[in-house]
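Interim report to the steering committee. The following record documents the input for FAD-binding oxidoreductase (487 residues).
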Amino acid sequence: MNMTLGRRTFLRAAGLTAVGAVAAACTAKPGPSVPQTSPTTRASVPPSTSSKPSGPPDWNALRGKLSGDLVLPSDGGFATAKRAFNPLFDGHNPAAVAKCAKPEDVQACVEAAGGRVPLAARSGGHSYAGYSAPDGGLVIDVGGMAGVDVQGDQVVIGAGAKLGDVYSELAKAGRCLPAGSCPTVGIAGLALGGGIGVLTRKYGLTCDRLQSAQIVTPDGKLRTVSAQADDDLFWALRGGGGGNFGVVTSFTFTTVEAPTITVFSLKFPSGSASDVVDAWQRWLPSAPPELWSNCVVSGGPSGACRVGGAFVGSSAGLTSALNGFSVTPSSRTMKTLGYGAAMNYFSGSSERQTFVASSRIITDPVDGGKIADLASGHKGMDLLIDGLGGTVSEIAPTATAFPHRKALASIQVYAPATASSQDTARKSVSTVVAGLADAGARGGYVNYIDPDLPDWKSAYYGDNAARLGQVAKKYDPNGVFKFAQSA
């Protein structure tokens, strides 16, 4: 595959889309091993107090405690160190970037800067709102904790691991973890927001595979949380969004045996988007859970529409499932691959991309004509509809913080932008998002976080919002990790 292609260009051409917090596959060397700790430990730092500290952080003192680097604006390389994935946020100016290689580094950051300046964890840096690079704040870069340690049917993954590395190591061990499609997305952001992916309908969300997580909470403690320890925090970490309750340093997930996967792409004539979207929404809920699919509607007058996806099994099984789709494509391709190769198939370029995006959730089918009409007035925009259902729907909406268990699909509104066109792009995205809400798609996916979404808290969390707020108040009463759209 030509890795110089833009990721969205590749996905549009293949009839596929980004999923999860955006995530995927590639081959890379594993990072340092993931440390194992007791359920609650502390670094050799003084205990935190309930009163808010005063004065700026002592950056020199913090630098002396870190095993990695502390990069300040006056240091060479700061412009690179502070960067998020989206170049639109290059103008953000954090006060410092801490390169953390172990949990004790994160603890030192929280003790030194918590309550003094904004704190934000950064794994892959894919926050759609640029929240992982706060102006005047401390970026806690967990990229140095990137180990992927397969242990039988479990895998321990450092919070800084990128999905490309995760897939590579799992494939070597013959194991599988359901996740997304972009190789540079961090496992932390993906899992904490839920984790929609190409194997979601068969194996569930990424967060559904979480067994435990190590997290540094605002009091400076390193906790190992699970269903048996700090179960309320464990509940919140499964879909409550990244950065809300502390800094996760590692995750332990259950895995499944790596399956054979048949990928496919269907293309349809111009002007067929309305019929294709309607047919797709009727077809997917009745399809077997082994089949995951998406539907991509491109903006502009042509009304181009594509359907793609993955089937856990053989081409014969996929062919049978596709027989239920009522609109005949102009072309159809399919290919049977091993797990690692299939994840690479869904991966595009790892190059940085400039864009504006938001989302809605489809619970009941939305009129395909309305979706096509909304897209038609916005050339260059894509409406990327990712299927849910299957195994995702077997879990109650209140069992984890991810509330959209009964949804049919998420729909991402994605518009390329430049520094000069971003205001226009944001207005276009907001217009389409509002139109989708009027058409009945009213929820939202927190991993496509949007500062302009007017009803964001109810959209992202639904009836779980109040409980998330209680968990945040319990573990972060002083708002150490508070930001514009925190729980």
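Residues 422-438 form the longest helix (17 residues). The committee is asked to note this result when reviewing the revised timeline.
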